User: Fold these one by one.
Assistant:
Number 1:
Amino acid sequence: ENMNALDPRTQIGGGQGLDGIQTPAGIGGAMTDLTAVGEGRGTVLSLKLDRLSDSVSGQTVVDPKGYLTDLKSMKISSAAEISDIKKARLLLKSVTQTNPKHAPGWIAAARLEEVAGKLVAARSLIQKGCEYCPQSEDVWLEASRLQSNENARAVLANGVRENPTSVKLWLQAAKLEEEPERKKRVLRKALEQVPQSVKLWKEAVALENEDDARIMLSRAVECCPLHVELWLALARLETYENARKVLNKARETIPTESAIWITAAKLEEANGNTKVVERIIDRALKSLQAHSVILNRETWLKEAEATEKAGSPATCRAIVKATVGLSVDDEDRKRTWMADAEECLKRGSVETARAIYAHALAVFPGKKSVWLRAAQLEKAHGTSEALNEILMKAVKYCPQAEILWLMAAKEKWLSGEVPAARDILEHAFEANPDSEEIWLAAFKLEFENNEPQRARFILEKARERMSTERVWMKSVIVERELKDVARERELLSESLVRFPSAWKLWAMLAQLEERENQLGKARDALQRGIKHCPTSVVLWLESARIEEKSDNVPRARAVLDQARHKIPHNPELWLATVRMESRAGNPKNAENSMAKAVQECPQSGLLWAEAIAMAPRPQRKSKSVDALKRCNNNDPYVQAAVAKLFWNDRKVEKARSWFNRAVTLNPDIGDFWVWYYQFELQHGDEAKQAAVLERCEKAEPRHGEHWQSVAKAVENAHDSTKQILMKTLRKVASAAPA
C-alpha cells in the first residue's frame, strides 16, 4: 500500500515507540543543537544588519564585498565539535568547583570559552579565578590578555597589589604602557618592590638615556652584585678610569667570571695599552685557577674568535697564546694546532688562526709545514708586507727548505722588486748550492724579465754545478729565445748523449728541424726518439703529424697503428687516429675508429667529447647521456661538451653552469677557459666576463690542445695568462659550437 503521510514512529523527534537499536543514540539531541545554532546565527546576522543600516528607512551601508569576506571568516562548528565543547565545559566546571584554588583549571575554562567564541563568559570565569587564586601570576596574566588594553591595566594593577614581587606581572604592566614615561614609572615601582630582579633592571635601563642609565646601573650592581652583565654594561658607559674601577670591583665581587677579565683586556686595547693586554689575560688564568675554575680550551678559543669579531685583535692573540696549549699532549700539539687554525679559517676567524700559527711557530720554529701554512694564510688574507716578513723569518729558521726561498723570491718578483728577488735567490744559493729548483728559479726570473744573457750565464753555471735533464732543456729554450740555431742544435745533441731517454729533448730537436723546414731530419729525430722512448705518446703523435704534413697519410696511419700496439688503451692516440681520418676525408673510417676507441677506452672523457661533436645533431643529446653515464658524471671534457650543446641551443644558464663545472673539475685545461670566456663574450655581461678572466688568471692553466699550441710558440714565450687566453680565443673563434 502506498503511504502518503509520514508514520509518526519514523520521525526523529517522535520516535518514542522505537527501541534503542532502531534509533541512533544522540541523533535527537544533535539535531536540536544544530537547530539552535542556526537560530543563533540568524539572530547575530539580524543584529549586524541592524547596526549597519542607515537611519533612512530602506537604505543600507553594507559593503557587499566586505560582508561576504566576513561571512567566509565565520567559523562553522560541526555537531561533534559542539558536543566536545559541552563535554569539556562540564569537565572544567567540575574541576573549578571541586578545587577552586587550582589556577590552571580556571585558565583552561576561560580559554575554552574563548575558543567557543564566548569572550564575556571567558572574562567572567577568569575573574572568578583571580578571586579564588589571587597569588597566581598566571591567572592575572590570562585575565589581562582577555581584556582590552585599558581594562588590562586595571587587572594588572590588582594583580601586582596581590603579588607585589611578581616580575612577570610588572613586566606585562610596563609592556601595556605606550608612553615611555609611564613605562619608566611602572618599572621604577617594580624595582622598589623587587630590587633584585635583573630582568626589571635591564628593561628599566634600556629606556633611559646614557647618564640616567649609568646612575641606574650603579644602583643595579649594588642590588644584583653577582650578575656580570650589569657590571659589564656599567663599565661600557663609564669613562676609561671609572671603567677600570668598575671592572676591578666586579673582579673582587665575582672572582670566577672570565668575561670581566676579557672586558678589562679589551678596554686597555681600546685605549692603546696593548702591552698590558697579555699580562691581564695571564693574570686572569692564574686567578681563575686559584678560585678552582676549570679552564676549557675550546671555550677560550671561542672567546678569542668572539673577541676578534668585536674588533680587539690584540686581546684575541693574547687569549690564544695563553690557552691554545691547555690540555694538549706534547706529541699532539702540532697536529691539534693545525686543525684548530683550519677550523678557525673555515669560520672566517683569520686573526685567531694567525695567532695559533704564531704560537705554533714559537714552539716549532724549524717546522717547514707550519711556516708554509702561515705564509699561505698571509697570502690569502694578509698584506704583502706581512707575507714578506713571515717568509723572511721562515728562510731564517728553515734555510734548507727550497720552497720557502722560492715563495719569498716569487713574491718580491710579483710585487715588481726584481733586485730584491735576485738577492733572495743569492742567499738561497748559499744555503742550497746544489738545488736544481733554486737554479731554475733564478733562470726563470731572468728569462721572464727579458734578460736572456743573464739567464744563459746562470744555466752555464748550473750545467757545471749540476748536470740535470731540466737544466739542459732550459738551456736549449734560452738559445731558442736568442735564435742561435747552431748553439741550440749543439746543446740538444750534447744533452741527448747525456739523457737519451728524455723524450722532451727529442721532441725539441724535431721542432728545431721543422722550424728549419727540414722535415726529413725532423722525422729521423722522432724515429730515434721513439727507439729510446717507445712509450712516449708525444713522440708518436709528432711522428704521425710530420707524416701527415708531408702528405703521407698511409704512413701516418701506420705510425698511429704501431703506436696503439705499443701503448694500448691510450685515448690520445685513438683521438689522433679519428681526427686524421676525418681530415683525410674518410668519415666512415673515422666513425669505425671512434667505435673501437670507446670500446677500448670506455671511460675516456676525451674520446666521448669527440664522439658527441662527431654525432649528427639529433643524436648528440643521447650521446651525451651515454658519455655522462660511462664517465660517472665527473669528467671535465664531457662537461665541456655538454656545455657547448646547451650553448648551441641558446640555453644560456645551463651552458654557463656546465662550463663552470668543467673548469672547476680541471682548471688546468686552458681550452675550457677559452670556450667559457668566448661564451660569456656572447651571452654574459662585463661582470661575468671579468669574473671568468680573473679565475683563469688565478688558475694559470698549462694544458689543452689549443692552449698549448699557442703557449708553446716561441713568439709567445713571455706572454701572460691573459694574453695567451686572448690569442687562443682568436685561434678558435672560427670553431664556434656546431
Number 2:
Amino acid sequence: RHASLPLGKARRATLRPSMVLAGGLETIQGPLLEMPKTCDSSWEVHKFGGASLANAGLYRTVGDLLISESAGRDGETNGRVPTMAIVSAMYGFTDLLVSAVQAAIVSQEDAEAKIDDVVEKQIATIRELAPPEVAAPFEKNISEDAVKVKGVIAALKLIRSVPDVVMELVTGLGEVWSAQTLLAYLRTKDVPCDWIDAREILVVDSKSSGLGEKGSSSTGGVTVQWEESAARMNGWWKDKSASFGDLDYSEEVPIVIVTGFVASNLEGVPTTLKRSGSDYSATIFARLLSAARVTMWKNTDGVYTADPRRVPDAFPIPSLKYDEAMELAYFGAQVLHPSAMVPCMDAEIPVYVRNIFNPSFKGSVIRGRCATLEDRDRMALEPSDPTFQTKRGVSIPIKGITSIDKVAILNLEGASLVGLPGVASRFFGALGQANVNIIMITQASSEHSICVVVPEEQGDVALASLRSAFELELSRASINSVSLLKGMSVVAIIGEGMAFTPGVSATFMRALFSAGVNIRAIAQGSSERQVSAVVTREDVTRALRSVHGAFTLSGKVCSVAVLGCSGKVGTEFLKQLHANADRVSEMTDLRTRLIVAADSKKMIHEERGINPDSVEKLVVDGDDLDMDKITSLMAHDINPTRVIVDLTDSDEVAEKYEEWLSKGIQVVTASKAVGAGSYERFKRTSVAAITAGSQWAAECSVGAALPLLNTIRDLTYTGDVIREIEGVFSGTVTFLASEMENGIPFEEALQDAYSKGFTEPDPRNDLNGMDVARKLVILGRELGMECSVEDVEIESILDDDLAK
C-alpha cells in the first residue's frame, strides 16, 4: 500500500526569490514541494551516520526513532511531521569497499571476495529485519549491484590504477544498500515510506575528484547546482504522489530514506560529497525541502566543550551559533562537518545534534549568526552578554576548546626580506600552486618571518614548493632558511563572547604556561571568535585539559607521585590524602589522582589512579625504583597539574628537583636536602622553578608546616626588611624538654617522640643540632643570604661515638 509517497490536494510552498545561500550558491527559483492541505507541519530531516547503523538492532532503533519523530512533539509541532532520513553506509562498509577497489589492481579474486563479504553482511541484516516477501526485492537489487560492480573493477588490474569515478561509484553503493535496508524495516511497520537514490536528485559541480581525506573538514570544492537539484526533487515528488492522494496527513505522514554522501555531476556521472559528507547531504536536502529543522543523530549528547576522550569533564553545549559550530568543526571537532552549516545559514534552519542512544536528551542546537565587526562595535556600547552558562552556573566567554592533530609548521626567515614587497604573495602563491592547504598563518609586520601551519602529510610538498620558489634568494643567502617542523598540533578556543570580554587570550596563554606547554605559534582573527596556538603533539591533551579547566569549564585533575610512601610520614600523608580528597575537591574543584608511589626500593604506577589505602601492600610487589622512569611518567602525564611529593631525605631524589621543576612539575617537599644542601644546587633549583613557573613548596621543611616561608616572602616582597628571626625550631627538642620537666626519663621521651613521628628519620640529627642548623640555612637563604650549613655554629649534646 505504501510503495510510494502521496500528494493529495496540495498547497504551494515557495522560497523567497531573493534568498541566496551562503558561499555564493545559486538562488533556488520557483516552488518546492506541494504539500496536502491536511499537512500543517514542515518537513524535518534526520541524519544517521555509520556508527548508528552498525547492525540490525541499530537499524531497528533508527526506524523506530523515525516513526516516533514523525508523530510530532507536543507544543513544538502542529501534529504529525513529514520526515526525511539521510543515511550513511553500514558501519565500516565504506572502508571495506575502498579496500575492495584497491585490491582489484592486484587481484580480481580478492576484490570480488571483499565485495561478496560486504553484500553478504548487508543481505543478512535485511533478512534479520524483514520477512522474505519484504526482503526479496532489496536482496535482488543489492545482488544485481554487486554483479555490475565486479564488471566495473575487472579492468583495474590491466590499467594498474583506480580512476576516481570508479572509486566514487563503488564506495557510494554502501549508502545505496543502507537506505534500502532501513526501508525494508519500515515496510514491516506499515508506514508510508520510500527511498531516494540521491544520485538521481542531487547535482553538484566538483573542482576536485576522489573521496577526499577521511574526517576532512572540507568537501573538496563541491558546489551544489541548486536549481537543477530543486527541479529534480520536485519531479520525484510529483512522480511518487499519484497513487497516494488519499493520505490524511493528520493521521499518517511519509518517511523518506535518502542516501547520504553520493550525488551526480551535470553530465550524470556518479560522484560524492567526499568523505564525511553525509552531514552535508542532510542540510542540502533540508534546504531543498525548506525543512523546519535538521537533526544530526550521533553517539554523543551533542556538541561538546571539548573532546570527551581527551577531557573527561567536557559536557554538551546547549546552544551555539553557526559560525561557532563551523570554527569548532574546522579545528577538529568531529561531531559536525563544517560544510554542513552552509545550506542552513541563510534559510535559518536550526541544526540539532542529539544522541541516538539517549533520545530524551535535548542535545545541542545550532542557530543564528555571530555578530559582524560592525555589529560587535555597536553591541559593545549596549548591554549584552554573549557568554553562556556552564553546568556549574558560571558565565564564560568561550563555547569550547578543540584541536587539530598531525600538523607541521612551515617557516620562511630572512633579514634581507624586510620591507621587500611581494614576499608574502610569492610565498602563498607557491603553496597554492602545490595545492597545499593552509590551516593557520602568522607573520611579523616586517615580513622578516612568515609562518604557516599545514597538514603534516603535505609538509614535504610545501617545503619543496617554497625552496623552488625562493631558490635564487636561498642561493644568495638573502633568505636565511625555509624550515619544516613536524609533530605539531593546533589548540584553539572558540566562542563569540571572546570579542566582548577582555583578558581571554591572557587566560588561554596562562593556562598553557601553567601546564608546562610551550607555544610555537599564535594566531587570532579580527572577529575574535577564535584564538589558536601551535604546541607539540605530545602536549596537546595536557593543553586541552588545562585550558578547559582555566575557563571553569571543568574541575582540574592533579596527578600526584608520592616518594617515601612506606615511612611514617608517608603512611600518614596517604591516609590524609584519601580522607580529605572529597572535601578538597568540593572546596577547590581539584581532584587528586595518585598515579605513582615509591619507597626506597620499589615503585608502582597506575595512570587511572591508585587507592592510597592499598599503596603499602602494592608497592611490595612493584617494580624496582627508577627515578628516571618516575620523571618520564610525570613529565608525559596528560593532566596539566602534576605534583611530586617528596617525603624522603634522599640526596638522589633532591638531585631531580631541578629537572622536575623545569618540566612544569610542581614539587612539595618535607626534605631539607635542597633547601639546606649545596648552595649551587639550591640556586639552580630556584631558577628552574621561576623560569618554568613551577611551584617548589617547602613549608614542611621548617616551622612544622606553619606558613613561615610564605610569610617571609610576603614581608620581603612588600618592602619590609627582616633583621632577625627568633624561635625554637626543633619540635623534637621541645617535646623532649617538656616531657623531662614532667619527670619522664630522656630515653623514654625520645622513644615516644620517635614512635609518634616527631623526630627526623635518624633521631641523632635532632640531638646533634643538624636539624636546626639546616632549618636556619633555609630561613637564611629565604632572606637572601648566601649561606650553608658550614656557616652555622653547632653544639651537639651527643658524644662523638654516639654521633657516628
Number 3:
Amino acid sequence: AAAASSSAAASASDVADKDVDMEACEEQLRAECWALGTIKWCGDKLAKTLHSTDWASAEVRSARLAELERRREEAALPGVSVVVVGNTGAGKSTLLNALLDETRVLPTNGMRACTAALIELRHEESEKAAPEYRGEVEFLSQAEWDKELTDLLDDLTPNDGPNEGRVAVSEVSADSPTYASWCRLYALYGDTFKNSRVQTGEKGPDGRNLYRYPTLESLSAKLKAARGRTHALGTVKAVTAPDAKAFRRQLEAFMDSTSDLVNCSGRCAPDRFGRPQCFCGNYWPIVKQVRAWSRKWRVLATGAVLVDAPGVHDDNSARDAVVKRKIKEADAVWIVSNIVRAVNDKTAKDLLGEHFRRQLLMDGQFGALAFVATQSDVLERSEACRSLKLPRDTTLRACAEARNEYTAGRLRKDFHAGLRELAEQAGEADAAALTARFELPVFAVSSVDYQKLAGLRPGDGPPRVWRSQEESGIPRLARHVRRQALVRRREISLRRCLGMRDFARSSLTLLECESRLPQATRDSLRAAYDQRAAEAQRRLKAACKAAEDAVRASFDTQVAPQLQQGAASAASEALSTAGAWGISVTQGGLHWATYKATTRRHGVFRLNMNEALTAPILKAVSVQWERAFLSGLQTTLDSLRDEVRAALDAFHASFTAALADASVPSAGLGAAPCDSLVSALAGVLSEVREAAQKQQRELSRGIEPIVQGRMLPGYDTATAEAGTGSHRRRVAILEQHVRAEAPKMFRAAADGIISKLEEMRDGLGKTLEREVLQRTLSGLRSAYAPAWDEVGESTLQARRKLAPPCREVLIAANDAVRRLEAAPGRLAGGG
C-alpha cells in the first residue's frame, strides 16, 4: 500500500510538472510583472489621492493611510533557495551545467573534495546592455584565515618524536589524515610553504648542510608575511564575461579546477641549484563562496536560486559555517548521488541518515526534499540484466529505464523507513501518520546525454542511452525547479493584489457614501458600534488566547518533556560515545592526527563531536518539535483565521441590523467591508508563521553550541598535550571531561532551549495580540467609522472629487487580480 501511495504521488507530481513548461512559466512571469507593476501604480495613485484633502475625519484618514503604507511597503517577491548537496564524484557540477543549458560554465574537479567552494546561481534581471555573465568571488576575512592557518599548521605539527613542535612541510601521502591540510597550504603559498626547512648549523657526512622543519611560530610568521594571494582576504572580486567559456576561465582562477595544486605563472625564478620552484599560489583555499548570474539561465527565471554546496564538515570552518547557514535557510534540499551507488552509496545513506533527517524534519524541510540520481546513461547491459533479473535480450535503454524505476522505489522505501525510525525513536505510537505526510521526489537523470541531445556537446559523439531530451530526465527536473518557485510566487503575488484591490474597494465605498445623518442618529450608531465591537473584541481575544494556549500546550506537554528525556539519555550515552573516538583505528576509532585536529577545532572537523554527543536529545524530540512548531502551528493559525473571520462576519451582520433599525441605508458600508481586514489577516498570519519557523530553526540548532561551550575546557586541555604518549593522554583527558560534565551539560542545554522556547512562545502570544487583535480592531473601527462620521459640505465635495480616481484604481486592481488568476491556471494545483 505504501509503495502504491508513493507511486501514485510520484505520478501526480509528474503530471503537474509536465504542465510547467517554459511557455507557462513565461506566461505567469509576464502576468506577475504586469500585475505587480499595476499594483504599485495603484498604491502610488491612492497615496497621492488620499493625502490631498479632508475626505473623512482625522481618525479615519490616519488609519486608512497607515494601512495603505503597509501595503505599499511589502518586500519584493522572495526567491526559492534550492541547496544541492552531494560528495565529489556525484556529478553535481555536470548536473547544474545541464540544468542551466550550458556545456561547462561551472568549473569541475573530482580530484579533491576538500577544495570545493559554495556556488550560488541566480538569473540575471539587469538590462540587456549588461554583460551576459557576471559573478562575485567572496574571500575569507583576515581573522577567519588567521584562525584557519593556525589550525592547519597545528595539524602538520607532531606532538612527539624528533620533530615535536615543528611543522612537517614535506609532501605527505594522499591517504594521510593531514593531506588535506598540506594541500591547502601548498596550494595557497606554493614553495614559500614547501621550501621552509631551516638550516641546523650542522653538516652531514657528505659535507652538505643539514636542514630541519621550521617551528610552528616561525613558519606562521613567514606565511602571514607572504601576501602573494592573501592580499585578497576580506574582499569581494567582481568578474564579468560575454560568454560561458570566458566566464568559466575567470572563475577557474579562483577555484580548484585542475589536478595541479599549484599553477605557476612561469615568472618564478629557479632555486640556486637550477630547480624549478613556484611562489604563485592559488586563490581557492581562501575563497568563501561564489555568486554567479546570467540572463541565459532561464530555468532560474522564476526566482529559484541553486546553491551548489560542497557538503557539511568541510575542513575550512568558515566555509563550513556558510554551507550550514545555507542549508538552514533553504526552501528545498536536493541530495545528489551517482545512480550506480545511489542505493548502496554511503554518502546517500548518510545524507538520509538520522541526523540529517532529524534536522530536516525540525526545519520543516522534509516536504521539500528531493533525490537526484545522476549518470543514468552509465551502465552495462549484461550486468543490469543480471542484477535486475531482466531477460538477456533486454535493450540497453530498457535496462536503464528498469534501473531508474528500481532506484526510485528503493530510495522512497528507505525514505519512509527513515521517517518511521524517527517516529519510533521519539516514542510515537502512530508512525504511519508521519510517513503519510511526506513523499520523496526522485529524479534519475543523464546530464551528458541531455547535453548531447541539446547540441551542447557536438564533438562528444551520440548519446549513450536516451533518445530524446525528455528521456534524459533533465527537463523534468527543470520543471520541478520552476514549479517550486512559481507556486510560492503566485501565492504571494495574488495575496498582494487581492489586498490592494480590497483596500481600493473599501476606500471607494467610503468615498461614495454621502449620507448626512442627524447628530442623535450618529451618536446612536456609534453606541451600537461600541457595543458590538466590544463583543467582537471579546471573541477575537478569546481566539488569540486559544491559539496561544494551543501552542503552550503542545510545548508544555510534548516538546519540553521530550527535551528533558533526551538530555537524560545523552548523559547516560556520552561516555560510550566519546570512548568510541579514542579506540584503535582498526576498531573504528579516530586516527591520532584527526583526533587532535578535532579537539583543536573545538570538536568540529570531519567528525562533529558536539553533534554526536547531543544526538540523543534531538532523537527524542524531533517529531514532537515538528508537530508543535510546524504542522501543529499551521493548524492553530488556520483555526485562528477561521475564528476571526467568523467574528467579523457576525459583527457585520449585527451592525447592519442596527443600521436597519435606525432606518440608515447600509450601502455606504458595502456588502462586506471586512474583506480588506481578512485579506490583511492572511498576510499577517503568514508572516507570523514564517517568523516562528525562522526562530525555531535557530533554536533547534541551539543545543549543540551550549554543549560545545561546556566542552571547551576539555578540548583545550586535550589539545595542549604534547610529547611521547600525548594521544593516549589526550583521549583520557577528554573522556574524563565528558564523564565529569555529562550529568550537568546536557541538562543545562535542555534547560537553556526550554527557556528560549518559553520566550518564543510568550513572544508569539504578544505578536498575536498586537498583529491580530489590535490591528484587526483598529481596522474594524476604520472600516465602520464612516457610518457616524459628520459629513459636511466640504467633505462631500472632497469625496466626489476623489471617487473617480479611486474608481480607476479599483478597476486596475481588479484587472491585476484577474490577470494573475488566469495566467497560471495549470500551475495552481498539484503538489
Number 4:
Amino acid sequence: DLQTAKRLNDTQPSRWLFFTQYPDARPANTTTMKLNMTTDVQQQHQQPPVNEHNIRMDMMKRSVKVIDAEVESGNTEYKRQLSKPTASRLRSLATQMSYRLDEGHGRCTYHVGVEDDGCHSLLGYRSVSESARLVECIARSLNAVVLERLMIQREVKIGKDGKAKLCPDRKAILVASEPPVLGAKGGRTTVVELDEGEDGEDCKEEKMSEDTASRPKKDRSLDTTDMALTRCELTIQRVETHLIDASPLSLMQLVAGVMPGTTTDRKNAFGRTRAESSLSDGVADSAEATTIDQQVPADKPVIPGKENASSPDSYSVSETLSKNNIRIAVVGNVDAGKSTLIGSLTTSTLDDGRGRCRTSIMKHRHEIESGRTSTATTHLLGFRHTGETISGKDKLRNPGRRRSEDEIARESYRVATLIDLAGHEKYLKTTIHGVSSGMADYGLILVNSRHPPTHMTQHHLNLCCSFGIPVIVVFTKVDGCPEHAIKNSKQEVFKMLRAPDIGKRPFAVRNEADVTTCMGKLHSLAPVLETSCVSGQGMDLLRKMLFSLPKRRRHENKVNRNFEFLVEDIFNVPGVGAVVSGFVNAGELEVGSGCHVYVGPTDDGTFLKTVAKSAHIARINTSHVTSGQSACLALSLGKDLRKKLRRGMVVLQKDPACTREFDAEICVLKGEGTTIRKSYQAYVHILNVRQSAYARHIELVDGIEGSRIPLGHGRHSCDEEGLVLRPGSRAKVRFEFAKRPEYIRPGMRMLFRDGRVRGVGIITNTLEVQPVA
C-alpha cells in the first residue's frame, strides 16, 4: 500500500523511481527532492562495500522459505536479528526464552536469521553471529547453555536478476558446527555436511553472486564475511547453576562482553579470545535434555583457575532436593521473629523493623494483619557450593518479584528447607504436628534477646528433644538490646539447656572457626548465635552454620523399601484433578499411565486403587520421585472418590494395610498433674497421622531401648482401677484409635498429648491388620 511504500522509500536509494510510480506521494518541491537524491547517492558511494551489501539485502524481498513457520507454543523460537538491545528488551527476551525452555522441559531451539514465517532473513555472517552471541548470553543468565551452534550457508543464492532463490541442490548447503561463545574450551569450527552433490545447470549459472564468485568451487570452509547469507540454529539446554559457575555473571555483564572467569572485556567483536568456561564437556555433550531425572555427568565442572583443585560433587535437581537437602524446623515464642528471620534469609535482604520480611513469606491475610503465623509452611534457602546464598529476588525479570521454588532448586548446589512453625500457645498443636511430620534434621530455637524465655520456649525445647532433633539456639533482635537484658536471657536459656531432661551444653559461636568446631558434636552441644535482621549482625555466620550442617536423616538408605508417601495436604487442580502433597518416606516411584498405587486408608479401612499420572518436585515436573523428597502426585480419581481423600493418608504401591490397635513403649514426660491409667484418652501424633486414641492396656518395662531422653526414676502406683503412670514412668501401652484405622509401622516414633505434650514413645507392634476390601 501507499504507507508501506513511503516507509520503504526512506531506506532505499531509488526513491525517484518510487515517486514516478506514486505521483500522489510526490513532494511539492521536486527540485529539492532531486538535489537530495543526488547527495544521498554520492554519500552512498563513499560508504564501505558492506553497507552496499546490506542495502541490497534490505531491498530484496524475504520470500525464500527455508523452514516451517513459527508456532506460538512449543520450544522453538525464530529471531531475525538482535542488535544492541536495551535492558528492558533483554528482560523480555529472557522471559521469552524461559517460556520456551519450560515448554521443552529444559531444552529449546532458536533459529537466528529467520523470519516468523520461516523465510530466510538474508543476513550476513557477522550479523547472525553477533545475534547468536546475544542469545547465548541470555541463555547463560537463565542457567542454560548452548549445546550446539550450527551455521548454515549456501542455502539461498542470488541470481543474475538480483532475486534470492533457494538452491535446488540440498547437498551443496554448508552446515558448520561452531563452538559456543561461552562453551567448552578448545572448540573448533567443523563442517557437518561434507558431501557435495552435482549441481544442475540452473544452479551452476546462479551458484554464486558477484561477491562470492571468486571462491573456489570445492571450498567447504565457513565464510565469515557479511557477503555470505547465513542463518544459525542454536540448541539450548537448561542445567543447574552449580554445574556452570560458582558465581555466574549477570546478563548485562555477559552482553557487555565479560567472559566467565575473567574480569576484562573482549578484545573486539570478532577477534575475541575464547576464555575457559566452567562448563564441563560432559554437560556440553549431553544428548539428553536436562530434566529433574537427568543423571549426573561423568565429568565434573571445571572452574577457571582451579583446574587442579578438588571440585565439589555435582548433583542433579533430584539429588539436590533429596541427598543435599537439610530440613530445619524453626520454632520459638510468638515474638521471637521466626518468620522475619526466614524472610530475611530467603530474600537476602534486611528487615525494616516493621515486618517487611515476614510479610513476604506469610500465607494468609490474617497472618499479615496480626503478625502471627498460624500454619506450618516450608521455604527453600539455596546455596552455591561456595556457601553463597541464592538471592530470593529475581533481579533478571523483575526486581520486586520473588524467585519461585523451581528456580531456586535448579540453581542450588545445596538446599536448606526452613519449616516456619507457629509460636503462639493457641497454635501449639499445629507446631507439634509440624515437628512430628516435618522430618526435620535440625531445629532452630529462636529466643527474643530483649525478654527472658517463656514456658513456650521450654515446650519447644522438649518437643525437639523428644523427637531426637539437635537444636541450635538463635538470639534475635540484638540490635539496640541492653546488655543486662541479653545477659539475663542467656542465663535462663543456658539453665534450660543444662537441665537433665535436655542434657545439652551451650556453645557460643562467634566466628567461622567455632562453626567448624561444633560440627559433628551437635548431639551434645547446642550452638548459640546472636543475630539481628535489621542491622544484619550475625546473619552471615548463621548462613555459614546452615550451609555447614551435615545431613542427619539418610532417606537414600530407604530407597530399596516399598514406596511410602505420607499425604500432608489435598488439592483439587482444575484440568488436573486430585493432587496430594507430602513427603516420600521410603522407596521410589515412576509415575505414568501404568503406575498403579493405593491411597488410604478411608474411614472404613479400605484403600483406593488409582493411577499416579504425574508428579512435581519443587514445582518442577518429573516422572520419578524417591525417598527424602517433598513432592506432589496427581491421582486419577473420580469426583465421588475424591471426596474420600483426607490428610494423614498414605500412598503405597503394594501391600496396603492399616490397623486400629498398636503397642508402644512410652516415656511420660515430667510435668504438672500428668496421670495415665487404663482408658486414658490422648491425642496421638505419629508422623503425619494425628488422631485421638485410648490406652487399653498398661504394662511396666525397665526402659525404652534407644530412647534419647534421659529421665529420672519412674514413678507409678496402683489403685482399684489398675496401674497408674506418673511423670518419669516408662511403660508398654496398647493404644486404640478412637475414630478410624490408620497406616502405621513398627519403629515409628509417636508423641501423645492432652493439651500439652505428656509423653513420647516408639511403636513396637501393630494388631488387627485389616486387608484391602
